[in-house]
Amino acid sequence: MEFRHLRYFLALAEELHFGRAAQRLSISQPPLSLNIQQLEASVGARLFTRNSRGVQLTAAGQAFLPAARALLEQASAAMREAREVALGQAGELQIGFAGTLLYCGLPQVLQRFQDSHPRLRLVLRELSSSEQLSELVRDRLDLAFVHTPRVPPGFEQFLVASQSLMVCLPRTHPLATAASIHLQDLQAHALVVVSRTVSPDYHERILAECELAGWLPTVVHELRHWLSVVALVAQGQGVALVPQALARSALAGAVFVPLQDCNLRYDTRCLWHSGRDQTALQDFVAILRNEAALAG
Question: How many independent structural domains does the chain possess?
Answer without folding.
Answer: 3
